[in-house]
Design goal:
Distance between the termini: 31 Å
Number of domains: 1
Number of strands: 0
Number of helices: 4
Oligomer: single chain
């Protein structure tokens, strides 16, 4: 889903037809929806039962901060390099972050599985 977000943002800047831009923006929305659910499931899976609420709150805080910083970064990039290049930069950044998730996920889950999953 992170790869779909990165590709959608980068490709939306490459086309000028409204229909294609709408399709890529739909891909952005679908990818973001999947990532929202996935990150909450991932946090609840890897955090111990006693600290799960705090972990979910910190994850939500990070998710909320991204909604504040992304428009700010896009505005600065648009001022310096133009709107099309700003979408390429943000899309490329999202694509690289999505590609880094694969090796990071293997590393993060290399240890012993948690014992208290699902117990109350």
């Amino acid at each position: 889903s992170a790869l779909m977000v990165g590709l959608s943002v980068a490709l939306a800047a490459a086309v000028s037809k409204a229909v294609l831009i709408a399709i890529f923006m739909f891909g952005l929305g679908a990818g973001s929806a999947v990532m929202t659910i996935y990150f909450q499931l991932l946090i609840s899976l890897v955090s111990p039962l006693g600290t799960r609420g705090s972990a979910m709150a910190l994850g939500g805080l990070g998710w909320g901060i991204s909604h504040l910083t992304t428009p700010l970064v896009m505005g600065v990039l648009e001022d310096y390099v133009g709107i099309h290049a700003a979408f390429y930069v943000i899309g490329g950044f999202a694509l690289v972050c999505g590609m880094m998730l694969v090796p990071l996920q293997r590393w993060a889950f290399a240890g012993e599985p948690m014992k208290d999953r699902g117990s109350a």
